[in-house]
Amino acid sequence: MVRVAVVGAGYWGPNLIRNFAACADTQLVAVCDTDQKRLTKALAGFPDVAPVREFDELLGRADVDAVAIATPVGTHAPMGLAALRAGKHVLIEKPLAASVHDAKELVTTAKEMGRVLMVDHTFIYSGPVQRIKQIVDAGEIGDLYFIDSVRINLGLFQHDVNVVWDLAPHDLSILDYLVGRLPRSLSAFGTCHADSVREIEDVAYLNLDFSGGLLASFHVNWLSPVKVRHFIIGGSRKSIVYDDLEPAEKVKVYDRGITVNGDIEARRGVLVGYRTGDVWSPHIAQTEPLARLVSHFAECIREGKEPITSGEAGLRVVRILEAAQRSIKAQGGRITL
C-alpha cells in the first residue's frame, strides 16, 4: 500500500482524507494543517492517522511515501517542490501552480527526482467525462467544430485567486483531455464587482482558437443567481451535451447538425441542409471521481506510470490561465501561445 499524507484540512482536504482512507491501495498515515481546530475536526473518525502541525516535520517522516497538497494556490509550488526534493510523490490540487514558471519547475523537479507528479483535475476521472472521451476518440462526433462551456454560480468567493483561476481549470482540464494540445491563441475579458481593490475578477469570458476550425469558449462567474454546469461539444457528425447537474442523464449525444452540399453546380442554390436524428444517453458508471483519482495515483506510484492528469497536463492548463490573465489585463488583447 502507498502511504499517503494530506496537507491542508480546509475545504478540499477532508474529501482527500476520506478517499485516501477508504482506498484499498493507500494507507492514510498523517494529515498536516497549522490550524489545530481544523485538524481535529478533519481527523474525527480517523484515530490511527497522525495529526501534524508543521510541514517540515511531515516531510521528515519515513512512513510517508506521497503527499497530497490541498492548500492555497500560492503555496502549491513551494510545498510541491519541497515534497519532491524530500523524495515524496506529489498530488496537487488544481491548478498545479500560480504561474507557468512555477509549474515548469515542478514538472522538471519531478523528472529529476524520479517521482510521480499528478494534478487533482477531478472531473477527468468522472464517469461522464470518461464516457465522452471514449465517444470522441471512437470518431462518433467526427471533426471537432466547437466547445462551449458555462460554469456559473453564486459564490464561493476566493481571496487569493480570481474566478478564472478558481473555476476555469475544471473545464480547461476537460478540454485538454479531449483535445490534447494547446490553443494557438486566446482572448479573455473579465471584470471585478465584489473586490475591485485587489482586482479579483468575479465574471470572465475566455475564447480559445485551436486552428483547424476548432473554437472553444468559456464563461465563469461567481455572481450568477443560478448554478449552471453545461459543456457542449459540436462535431461534424454529432454533438454532445454534458450537464453535470442532471441527476440521471448527464451526457446526451445528438445526431443533429448540417450537411454541406459540395456540388459545385449546386452552389447557386442552397449550400446547407439540416439533419435531425436521434438523441441518446449512454450508461454512466456511478463511481466517485475522487475515488478513481486516488486509486490511479497509487497505481502510477507502484507501476511507474505517467498519470492521466500529469504535471505536463497541469502545465498546459496553467499556460492557458496565465495567458487569459494577461489578456484580461490587456482589455481582451489576443495572446499567442
Overall number of structural domains: 2
**Total number of beta strands:** 15
Judging from the principal axes of the Cα atoms, what is the shape?
globular
Number of helical segments? 9
Structural class: alpha/beta
Main sheet overview: 9 strands, mixed
Order of strands across the widest beta sheet? 14-13-12-11-7-10-9-8-15
End-to-end gap? 41 Å
What does it look like?
With 337 residues, the protein is of the alpha/beta class. The chain folds into 2 domains: 2-121, NAD(P)-binding Rossmann-like Domain (Rossmann fold, 3-Layer(aba) Sandwich), CATH 3.40.50.720; 124-288 and 319-336, Dihydrodipicolinate Reductase, domain 2 (2-Layer Sandwich), CATH 3.30.360.10. The chain contains 9 helices and 15 strands. The chain has helices at 13-22, 36-42, 55-59, 73-85, 100-113, 127-137, 163-179, 289-303, 311-329, and strands at residues 2-7, 26-32, 50-52, 66-69, 89-93, 117-120, 144-154, 185-191, 203-209, 215-221, 223-235, 239-243, 251-260, 272-280, 335-336. Strands 14-13-12-11-7-10-9-8-15 form a 9-stranded mixed beta sheet. Strand 4, helix 4 (73-85) and strand 5 (89-93) form a beta-alpha-beta unit. The chain is globular and about 70 Å long.
